[in-house]
């Protein structure tokens, strides 16, 4: 059984459409609806729309909670309490960040990484919001100027746990990283552990099968790969996180190259023209 959590602001219909897809894929037991509890126009819109969505989901008897979407403490404390309760109840939690502002999404993410029973998703609309005029026209420049009409009020920090770890230790986990890169280069999947061993140029022995199985299990625990049965074999597949992680490792070298080039240019003697 799963529980869903949604923050309702300007797009209750989009949230509802996403929920319908979730409902068809998972047995939903409970629904939490969070809304903007501030006493301003944004809060009024949020309260109005959460009532609309609550009526549409009345079969599930949604539980409503107000939050301040611009307060890390407000969002984090509410989300953590939901996740903790549902973890103790043995339920998985699917969190919809479709309508969340950036600071709220950050607070939710900080809470989610502390729980194995939680996942985040977002509903993508059929079309993007505003009509954008043709580039390199006066209308385009005027439209951009109208959109760029906000000035800073303050900076909002996001609290993070001090005890943080990388998914893998790049100074030690060479073999696990090698497996991820092998999978990435082979289209993201292998038919079996044997395929991974052969791609590595090693013999398929009992010792190697046991070693690779252990590495694969550890990568699966970290959410970087998943295994699924296909006939007599168990396929090894890179998850989206796994693909993103391999690409991230590759881009570290790209960043090093660019930074080194910029630093080299900065050290060159500057010529001043008179």
Structural class: alpha/beta
Oligomer kind? single chain
CATH architecture of the largest domain: 3-Layer(aba) Sandwich
Strand order of the largest sheet: 3-2-1-4-5
Helical content band: 40-55%
CATH class of the largest domain: Alpha Beta
CATH topology of the largest domain: Rossmann fold
Give the helix tally.
9
Distance between the termini: 75 Å
Please provide the ordered H/E string of secondary-structure elements.
Answer: EHEHEHEHEHHEHHEEH
Query: How many beta-strand runs?
Result: 8
Question: What do these coordinates show?
Answer:
With 274 residues, the protein is of the alpha/beta class. It has two domains: 2-121, Rossmann fold, CATH 3.40.50; 167-274, Arc Repressor Mutant, subunit A (Orthogonal Bundle). It has helices at 12-25, 41-56, 72-88, 102-112, 138-147, 174-185, 193-199, 206-221, 240-267, and strands at 2-8, 28-36, 63-67, 92-96, 118-121, 189-190, 225-230, 233-238. The strands form two sheets. It has a five-stranded parallel β-sheet with strand order 3-2-1-4-5, sandwiched between helices. Strand 1, helix 1 (12-25) and strand 2 form a beta-alpha-beta unit. Helix 3 runs parallel beside helix 4 (102-112) and helix 7 (193-199) packs across helix 8. The longest helix is centred in the C-terminal third of the chain and has 28 residues, at 240-267. It is globular. It starts with a strand and ends in a 7-residue tail after the last helix.
């Amino acid at each position: 059984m799963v529980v869903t959590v949604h923050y309702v602001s300007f797009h209750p219909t989009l949230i509802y459409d996403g929920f319908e897809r979730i409902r068809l894929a998972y047995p939903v037991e409970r629904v939490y609806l969070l809304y903007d509890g501030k006493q301003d126009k944004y809060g009024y819109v949020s309260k109005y729309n959460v009532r609309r969505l609550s009526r549409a989901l009345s079969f599930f008897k949604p539980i409503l909670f107000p939050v301040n979407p611009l307060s890390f403490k407000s969002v984090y404390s509410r989300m953590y309490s939901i996740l903790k309760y549902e973890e103790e109840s043995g339920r998985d939690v699917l969190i919809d960040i479709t309508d969340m502002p950036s600071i709220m999404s950050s607070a939710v993410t900080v809470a989610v990484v502390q729980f194995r029973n939680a996942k985040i998703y977002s509903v993508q609309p059929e079309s993007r919001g505003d009509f954008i005029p043709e580039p390199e026209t006066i209308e385009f420049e005027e439209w951009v100027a109208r959109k760029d009409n906000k000035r800073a009020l303050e900076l909002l920090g996001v609290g993070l746990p001090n005890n943080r770890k990388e998914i893998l230790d790049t100074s030690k986990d060479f073999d696990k990283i090698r497996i991820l890169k092998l999978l990435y280069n082979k289209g993201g999947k292998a038919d079996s552990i044997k395929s991974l061993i052969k791609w590595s140029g090693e013999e398929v022995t009992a010792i190697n099968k046991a070693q690779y199985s252990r590495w694969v299990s550890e990568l699966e625990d970290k959410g970087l790969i998943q295994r699924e049965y296909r006939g007599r074999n168990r396929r090894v597949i890179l998850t989206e996180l796994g693909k993103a992680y391999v690409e991230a490792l590759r881009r570290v070298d790209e960043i090093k190259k660019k930074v080194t080039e910029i630093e080299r240019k900065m050290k060159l003697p500057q010529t001043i023209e008179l």
